[in-house]
Write a structure and sequence with these properties.
heterodimer, A: mainly alpha, MetI-like fold, B: mainly alpha, two-stranded antiparallel ribbon, 14 helices, 2 strands, 75% helix, 1% strand
Amino acid sequence: MRRRRRIKPFMAVRYALLILGLVVTVIPMFYMVISSLKSNKSTFSYPPQLFPNPHEITLENYVYIFRHVSFLKYLGNTLFTALMTVLLSAVISSVLAYSFARFKFPGKSLFYGMIISVMLIPGLAMIIPQFEMAVRFGMVNHLWGVILFYSAWVTPFSTFLLKGYIEDNIPRELDEAIYMDGGSIYSVYLFVIMPMASPAIAAISILNYLFPFEELGWSQTILKSDEIRTLPVAITMFFQAHNRTDWGYVFAMTSLSMVPVVLFYLALQKYFISGLSSGSIKG
Amino acid sequence: MSNMAGKRSVWRTDWRLYTLLLPGLIFVAIFTFYPIGKMLAMSFFDWRIGYRQTSEFVGLENYSQVLADPIALRALVNTLMYAVVTVPLQMALGLIVALLINGITKFSVTFRLAYYFPVITSWVVVALLFRYIFSNQGLLNYFLADVLHVVGEPVGWLSSRVPALVVAMFLGIWKGIGWNMVIFLAALQAVPKEYYEASSIDGLNGRQQFFRITLPSIRGTLLFALVMLCIGAFNTYTPIAVLTGGNPAHQTEMVLTWMYFQTFNVTGKMGYSAALSIIITLIITSITVILFRTLARKGE
C-alpha cells in the first residue's frame, strides 16, 4: 500500500513530461495543417493565429492546388520513384547481404569494406561525377536518373542491416536442409533468406520508401521539367515561384504530401520499430 | 565427413554465387565506387566539362583553394557547430523520452508512435514550416514580442548567421529526437530485468542503476547512434537550402550547400567542389574511426 503511493507521483510526473514534450513535438505540424485551412491571404497577416475562428476555416487553398498545380502528377512521380527505389534496393541489398553473410570468396572483406565506407559519404558529395554520368547516360529529366542513384545511395546501409540480420537471426541449418534436398543457393535465397529476412527487408524498404519524399538536392538537379518533378522539388519550386509568400497554398501542398507518408507509417508502424532496432542494438 | 560435405557444397555453389554477387556489386560499383574514384581524380584537375575543353592537372591547387576560402571554412565551422550541438542534444533528449516511455505502463505505444512522427515527415516540409514559424512576422516572434513581451522588436531569426543556425539546429533536434527515442527504447527493453532486480537487492538507487547498469548495457546502441548522427550532420543540405539558402551572404552555408552552390552556380569550379567533397569525406571518416577507436574498445 505504502509502496504504491510512493510510485504514483513518479508516474504522474512521467506522463506530464511526456505530454509536455509531445505538445512541443506536435504543435508545428498542427500549425501547418491549421494554416493550410486559413485563406491564403490571412496566412501572412499579423498577428498569426494558432487557433483561428472556426468560420475562417476554408478549403480554398486545397481547391487552388488541385486547380492550378498538377499535384497528383507530382504525387504519382514520387510514388513511382519510391516504389522502384524500394524494389531495386531490396533486391540488390538482399542478394549482397546473403552473399556476404554466407560465403567466402576472394576480395570479400575488401568489397564489403568498400560498400560500408560508401555509408560515410553523403550522397550529395558525389554530385559532380554523378551528374556527369547522368548527363552521359541521358538520365537528366528522367525519373530513372533519380531512381538508380537513390537505389545506389541507400544500398550500403540496407546491405549492412540485412547482413547483420541474416547472420544473427537465420540459422545456417536451414540452408543445409535445402542443400540436403538437392537445392541450390538460389533455392536458399528464395525459400530461406527472403521469407526469414522479411521483417528486416520491410524495415529497410520503409526507410527507402520515405527517401524520395524528402530528398531535394539530387532530385532538383535531375528533374528539370515540371511534369516529371517529385514532391520535394515541386513544393520547393512552387514556393520560390510564388515569391516565397503564398503560405496557404504551400501548406496545402505540404499537408497533402504528408498523407501518403502518414498512412504508410500507420499501416506499417510495427516494422518501423522492429527494423530500426534490429540494426542498432548489436551496434 | 561433414567437412567434406561442407567443402563440396562450397565448391558446388561457387559459380552460382557470382551470378548473385556480381550484378549487385557491379551496380554499386557503377553508381558509387566509380563516382568516388572519379571525384578523387577531378579534385586534382582544373576540371572542365564544356565542349573541346581540356582539363589541366593542377595537383593540390584545388585543395589549397578550398582551405584558403573563408566561405568554405565558415561552412565547415557551421557544419561542425551543427554536429556538436545537435548530436548530443538529440541523443540526450531521445534517451530521456525513451526512459520516460520505458517507465510508464499505459499508452507507451501511443507515445512512441507520436514522438516518432517528426522523423517520418519530409525535410522539405518541416524546413518550410520552420521558415514560416521563424519568419519576422511569424508565430514565434508573435509569442516573444506580443504575448510574452521578452523582446521589443521581432527577431530576424533567419537574417543573420547565428540565429539562423540556431533555428536549423532546433529543427534538426526537433526532427531527430524520435529516431533516437526508438532505438534507445529498443535497447532499454533488451536489458535483462534481472540486472535491475539484483542491483535493487544490492541497494543501488535509481541514479546508480542508470549509470552502472543502463548506460553500459546500451553502450553499443549509443555508439551506433553517435556515428550515424555525425554522418547525418555532415549530410545536412535540405534544411539550410530551404531555410536560408545559405544566405545572408553565404553566412549560413553548410559544406554541402556551399559545394552545391559552387558546382551549379559558378562555372569552372568543378575541381574545387570535388576537392571540397574529398575533404568532407576525409573528415567524416576520421570522426568515425576516432569514435570507434575510443568508444568501442572500452566495451570489449
